[in-house]
Structures
1.
Amino acid sequence: MPSKIVQWINARWPLNAVIRWSLEEEMPGGASYAYVFGSCVLLIFLLQVITGLWQLLYFVPTIDRGYSSLNYLRTEIPFGWLIHGLHYWGASAMIILVGLHISQVYIWGAYKNPRQLTWLIGVGNLLLTLGLGFTGPVLPWDERGFWEAEVAVSSAGTTPILGTLARNLLQGGSVLGQLTLSRFFFLHVAILPGILILFVILHLVAFRKFGISGPWDEAKRKRSGFFWPDQVFKDGAVVTFIFVILVGLSAYRRPPFPGPLDIMQTFYVPKPEWYFLFFYQTLKAFQGVLEPIGTIGIPVIVTLLFLFLPFYDPSPERNPGRRPVAMICFFIFIAWVITMAIIGYYSHPGVASGVTSKVSTASLQPSKVSPGNPPAQVSASVKQGEQLFNSLGCIGCHTIKGRGGVVGPALNPQLLQGKTRQWLITQIRNPRSHNPSTIMPAFNSATDQQVNEVVDFLLSVVHGKPVIRGPVAKAPPTAKVLVPPAAPPTSGVTGPHGPPEAASFIIGNVELGATIFHQDCEACHGPQGKDKVPNPGSTGGTVPSLNPVDPFLFNKNAQTFINSIDPYIQHGSIPDGPNPALRMLPFGDSESLTQQMIANVEAYVLRSNGVERAQPVHPGLEPHFFFWLMVIVFGLVLGGFWVWKDRR
Amino acid sequence: MKDNLFFAEPATSRRGFLKRMVGVLSALVAAAMTVPLVGAIIGPSFRLKKARWVKVGDISSLPLEQPTNMKFPYKTEDAYLRETVTHDIWVTKHSSSEVTVFSPICPHLGCHYAWHPETHEFACPCHGSIYSVTGKVLGGPAPRPLDTLPWKMEKETLSVEWETFKVGILQKIRT
């Protein structure tokens, strides 16, 4: 019956002819694993199309919903983690495979006459693939995507003569916003894939006209092979292997959650995707007037070098051993790309020189003085005052010498200039007498000596130089065991003064949260939230620990956990007790932290307690389980087939 | 090579084996992809809406045995959207600690119905269903009585569990 249907179709559509054209290819020299890369690119591209389409079921390209709709897919949709993971890792795989394919073609000299057109179309494919890799990461409009769009638009603006036009067209509107995102979406989902599909077809037709160029060694060309099934089998085996790797990466190395876009965020160091790192690093050599040479000149020149290769290298010699110039140029290019990429990866552009990139875990110690500053003759009381500034909690709200919170004004020399000792003492003991509407608590439980030492420290700042702000903190290791606090319950709080707000349904970034925590929370909650910082005047006697957090707030479901801690950060709360010196400030209501920053801090606090903010709530099958199930099934079927083959 | 391209070869031959292997590999990868793709499409399609308790308001000023429409803000969860909308319910106060709460959605086809004090009946404008003050169907195409909602009272402050039910059927089944 199936053959009758096939016959019926064949009489009306050239089905057999198409199949024969696709599969019947004689391969001089036989099939080889060296030739698999082209097919691998094609099949991984097919995977990208399918996973890309499936993401359209849930992702919406708007600046307010892009990130949250993608996270909904990744955490609430069965196998959403896999579909997005395959697409994310598949993009990297496709670029690597394209690189391997181009390298193989180059080494075999397969771009030479009569295959020049195949090569030209191939360069087009390369540019389209890079374009896809460029426009894709912008779409979630998260902390990473936005900056990639910003760089794209600004770089377009450096084009000589047409710069303003290019920039405005790419930006789409008067600001980098919704219209920009829509344009990137249009390019990534419709235009670039559409043109690429057309170009791939043209590329395949051009390729099939002459077939593979094959070995350059005449002796090796004597052996013959066929595309079907010899080469197809090799292609299939390699692609299956790549597929299994991609699933493994999706299960064990989930694509990151960069955190929601927060324009005011200053800790995030934007860097492009790894495959553009070489270009990012190279551009650093072209500053100022030279910038267009880097942003436009280099890509244009490299593209032209690629394009015209068959024409400035017309010699028919294909043996790489007899093409030293070609091979040297190849290795120089590869070396440039790899070296620049590695340097770019490890570079820290935003951090001032002389400061290390590891944050000191003993943050209650006096801050380090930057090099070039003469080590001051610091008296004992100033040192003591600095330690009290930390332990009494002042640093939670005030920045001094470049470190601290941003709830209150920064205690820099300009602010402190002209303030007498008595004024400062009154400000600490009774801030409301200076400003009735201040939220600064009155530190009237500190001793006179302590207050004087803090004032000594403050006054020393008036005459000292500021220290460069500390760098990005590292995320904490996941807490292994949740230990209930043995101490009397620290939760003598009256409860937060309101419900969860917007931050409670934004998935934040743990690393950024660690930095914000270090700056704004650590002074009261201790480094990594572990310590029991004294809170004189409160019933519990200390500020509640956050690592581990109180059991009545903890929940292994991320959303429930967040809903119980978010209200404290948003609306603040006052601990029980006759006169608590410290209370939780309403960081949300006072807008001293944006909702995005609060979301990041919450992700960090959850991670410290062993809970992933971005846990897949409805994964379909757990990622690790799905991966190993797939590996076992694949192994059993293929192994069984192998045994069956040997039995006959 | 003019042979049947696919599986005419005996499996023992090398070519035959390779052809079958390609088939097996394709089937494995296709199966590994089909499960997640189908799972992601079905996804949340059959999930129930989350029911949540929400505070409605103070019933102390409500008249006895007279259905009153009470409105309240409700934070909806629609996929990744969070919005505050206004919902309403029909509340009949029997005493300061006892009420009946009706969902405002007509079980026939989902319209909002109204209370008519002059005839002492609920009436739906869409297709003419009529209900008594206890929610019993008095006339019209309604398939079942008015749907009640769970409620609780704390010192004359009423809270309800906002739920919705499938329309047009005999049974009261949550959506």
2.
Amino acid sequence: MQTPEPQQRDRSSTATTDPGADGSGGLAETPTPVEVRVHADPALIPSVRAVAADLAARADFDLDAVSDLRMAVDEACSALVPLARNGGQLRCGFAVADGRIDVICRVPVADQATLRQDTFGWRVLTTLTDDAEVLDADPEWLGIHLRKQRLAP
Amino acid sequence: MSEPAAAPPSGDAATKPAVTGSSRGEDSYDHLVPMLTEHAGLPADDPRREVLRDRLVQGYLPLARHIARRFAQRGEPQEDLEQVATVGLIHAVDRFSPERGSDFLSYAVPTITGEVRRYFRDKAWSTRVPRRLKDLRLAIGSAMPHLSQELNRAPTAGELAEHLQRTREEVLEALEAANAYRSSSLDDMLVDDPSSGRLADVLGSADAELEQVEHRETVQPALRKLPERERTIVMLRFFGGMTQTQIAERVGVSQMHVSRLLTRTLATLRADLSDPPTP
């Protein structure tokens, strides 16, 4: 796992990967160069995944990788949205740097909800990305961190 | 007044022979031919023209439906296609002139088919997309296999731009636009020609070892419910470790098409898995 970097100003710096642990606003306020906040509503997920795809295409990811990332963000958001507290916000942060893109999607949850990793959905996430991780250190928020490399390692 | 003329004729006489069935030869339209000649011979402002036109359109309606059915399974609602085909039929009735020699069917079929094709070209996009982007999307579609082969992976937006001698910005825009087109069915024609094979026809069966993997997974009931073709693509991607480009090559469709199919199938699976049957 990567070292958390709470003070992120530089667009090219890397994303914090264990945001719940830094104690400065928790997972909810994870700083990233790009963040999309929408109501936790399945109808808004296509807009979020379009942002992910656009960022990856602009960063010159090949079109397989762009499409994989779009599907992965779709899957991650679709897994999180049903767990969101009523009226909660889906927040997705994106950081493009060093030939990879990091995505942190999270929703506010009640009673320490978590995500099972023995599901088909999780298999989809791990197949489509180079790294997928549940972020459940923050009791109020539950998230998924995805990482996609520009070139398959 | 047109009252007495308008009420009865639109119904029985014109529709009786043609509407009752769908699989009949051209003979069933024979009784309409004199009406066509009469319709074409009337001046544009003659009130009888309107009545004849209605009866002709209703009489030939099975033809329009038949043509609309040829374009079924391409992701457009059947009612919409029939409506578009009917518009084509109305054009055909309006423009047909018997003195030019050809009979009505050989004039109407291409007219109706053309109308439906135009619909697919111009209107079957869920959002409005400028023409130049549609053209560029087609150019990208044909450049993809070539570049993928050369690079041994899917190209990037930058590589496509260079290859097509367009700006990267244009390519990015067109790729975004491509996602607005909801072409989605595995029953889609491989190319834009109704006589070509369907994707389903060229898909092989799943490898035996993939079946093995499937049995170890909890998703098998949901996977089994998918049409075999869609299941194959999901298996190849998520259990066979193939990239979209490799699947596209194996299956003989574009990478963009594989991408759309996967997205749609995942949504289906998700819906199915989030509501599992009690064991």
3.
Amino acid sequence: MKRLREAAKNNEVSGKVEKVSPGSVGLRTPRLRRSAASATFWFLLATAPLWLSHVGGYTQLGTRVLVYGFAAMSLNLLLGFTGGLSFGHAAYFGLGAYGAGLTLKFLAPSTPLALLIGTLAGGLAATVLGPAVMRRRGIYFAMITIAIGQLFYFIAVRWNTLTGGEDGLAGFQRQPIHFGAHTLALGGTTFYYLVLVLFAAGVAVMRILLNSPLGHTWLAIRENQRRARFLGIRVDLYVWASFSISGTLIALAGALNALLNNFTSPQDLHWILSGDFVIMAVLGGMRSFWGPLIGAIIFLMAQDYLSSITGNWMTFIGLIFVVVVLLFPNGLLGLLARRGDTA
Amino acid sequence: MLLLAFDTFNGLIVGMFYGLMALGLALILNLNGVINFAHAALLVLGAYFAYMLVPYIGFWGALVVAPLLVGILGVALERGLIRPLYKRADPLYSLLLTFGIALIFQDLTRTIWGAQGLPFAIPHVLNSSVSSTFFFLTGYRLFVMVMAIGGVVALFLALAYTRLGIRIRAGSNDLETVSSLGVNVYRLRAANFALGCIFAGLAGVLAAGQLGLSPTMGNGLLMPSFVAIIVGGVGSLVGSLLGGLLIGVAAGVTTTYFPAASEAVIYAIMLIVLVVRPRGLLGEEGLFE
């Protein structure tokens, strides 16, 4: 493991490395300020149902932001921290959604079981399909992931009897959770807190992974794949692991999304959604841990607002893509980090 | 049996569209290093340009002018938006950029011409059935085949014998050397991008008469064209074309026996190819690995 850490360190010396390291945005800010920021952040999330309505939002939008933010962060494990350009992650998101929905509809009226099966369905698919892409790089990686994603889209569209086809899968409801004698009814606000708890758990898992030797190896691969290979790292296996873990986590987000809407449709599997996830990550800053969440917040709010004022909101979403790529390639947090350097 | 022949022939026609799309995409991918997500949107624009032009210059004029207009649009896109991205090593940005352009074009097409399909008249000469037993052999379908084959042959001749074609091939192999030999690679890339777009436009005009004219007509063609490139082999133009025909026919044949799987079979073929022969049918080994 020592040589892995050295691999990461070597790259830092090479000067090509971004200044922001994973899992620790603003490493150079004093520890106190960091924990204060972190406390504020979690406090805001925990009290969101109380203040959201006063700033023009609503609890369901808050839940959606958490779900999509978590999805974009899951994708970013692969995209931003391993350098795997996946344009097909909606497939695993959608598989999670369908897994959860079908479980509730046909198998058992249990919310935890639905979440578990949804997560495993997406994770399993990502794990099985990983070897088809793990040796590819760059643009070719993107092409294959996006094409594989479409396979699931067409299965969902065509397998009418099971999935409801183009109309989507309806007819299931998230069920109250039973803790022994207690029963937790999942209303809008309660469900927000369930999502928040799972979000926090997922974020903790990502932090632990990124701070482990595994995460450092991913970084080494992202920064210089050839050098990582020279050091004896089995690059393809690490990429596979990243693909599989990130697919599993995003499947959990998908399952939560299905429960949020009590509905899922083939659009949840479509490559357009994959592109949305990628732009969320890039918009917020894909080199930073929280960037994708910031990106998701901005993207969803923009989408929500634009679709309420104009029928041409797709044009504006497209413009967001173009503007981000041309003017803010490092995302908002990347921009802030750079400004912090000069200050 | 007749049904199988019908579906196979249909598949062949659709495969031609896949092939034309894939060819343009592969040209751009090889030299410009960009996956053009906007390719389907450009195809649709080609079709609508033709629709606007037909009343003034007729079908035949539109068949020539509309693809060229798409080519000009392609140059504008390349110059204005894509060129600044060449110096960024990460292919992510060009992907996202063309993705955004595709969204914008599709939305604008819908705003300008409406979400509903529009009638696209094809010349009377082409609109008759050639054989009464094989009812599906209409003049227009044969015409589509002739045009597609003609376009492809013209492209390959141009690549083999014209100065621009030779430079494009050389640039696809080693752009730096081409540049150091005094070729203006910026202009070369713009020309190449335009060429790929012209093929999208041509496919669009032909598809308008075959698949119908609507803002979403290109959506079903983009992903199969990606698959065509993967199956045929990245880096090989002939491979992309063959890949397109192969998956088109495979989808057609599947329609006869198991209609619900006619799209999924395309992606299944891709997975099989990736497992058995990762570089694709005619691809170079080790590219993009």
4.
Amino acid sequence: MNPLAALGRRVLDVLRAFGHAAFFFVDLLRAVPASLRRFSLVVAQIHAIGNLSLVIILASGLAVGFVLALQMYYALVAYGAAESLGLIVNLALVRELGPVVTALLFAGRAGTSLTAEIGLMKAGEQLAAMEMMAIDPKSRVLSPRFLAGMVSMPILAILFSAIGILGAYVVAVLLIGVDAGNFWSIMQSKVDVWRDVGNGIVKSAVFGVICTFVALYQGHETEATPEGVAYATTRTVVISSLSVLGMDFVLTALMFSTP
Amino acid sequence: MGKKGIETLVGLFVLLGIAGLVFLALKAANLASFSNGDTYTVMARFDNIGGLKVRAPVRSAGVTIGRIASITLDAKTYQGLVRMELDKSIVFPKDSSARILTAGLLGDQYVGLEPGGDEKNLSPGDTITQTQSAVVLESLIGQFLFNKAADSGAPPANGAKK
């Protein structure tokens, strides 16, 4: 085969994959109303995706808050600005670390299990069996998981930021001895609810869509073999992490580039 | 686990999320300190706004009573036109003066309002006429050097020591 044709085929393959994913996404959205009518399915998935991710999210948030406060203290105390510790930790968590780290952990904790579950369902031909019984697997299996991921991610990100700020409070005020009143009041005077907290939540909602969609798509498109499921699970983590980081740059540029 | 148990746990999860959001909004951000709801707008023209930024506070006697809504250049007078949103419950006399001040030595700049003695009050859309521009460090130093040179009566190259 000549190299020109090889190049052409590669490009077409990539385009085809994108188109395929886009149609899958539209199908998922179409199935949302049907799964809203059976809301108990969504609730069960929120439990599996959201509740069970709580421990790792809260532990990570607390650790990030601790470490951020400790490190920032040494940088800030040189300028006599140790009271701004809370502000810096708050902005870093609410704007960036909360949504992004939560999304990365979510891809590892919930995304992989979604891919493996859907992939094994496909490998065991359960999805095909459902179609045989005239049950749409998209509205019965995929869409409730999609909705649950979309709902869970912002909640998890909010909790990550909140517990991180509390962790910074513990380190800064209780351990180091920064004044508690200044810690909170500087934070309150500089952090804006809509601009900082609100945009952070928008970010995490977008990441929720990305992570859940990638996980479901990889699971649905997996090869029906043990190796296929293993590859799909790996790809879920890699693709969702990279798209979250890339998307984060775009969203940050859109949201926070103007003063 | 039964269906009821799962529903309760999910309810708890959502409730926890709402609690976190309330914490972020009220304790860790400025929703409680100043609401955007009931405000009125007044304007002021400054020769130089220095480093004043949109959303910087407007203070009177040190108390925050409003925010800067927008800063534009007046095309006719070539002055900075600053639009401020003030808390509706606080009215100022018509001859109040506005100054651009700096919080601390290196802090952010804000607008300080000083009430005048007029019996009429500023109404929405009015312009504050008495303004004082931001202090620009370069011009301050330049003025200081100029005065020193004038005092010593000698060219500044000799040094200003007496």
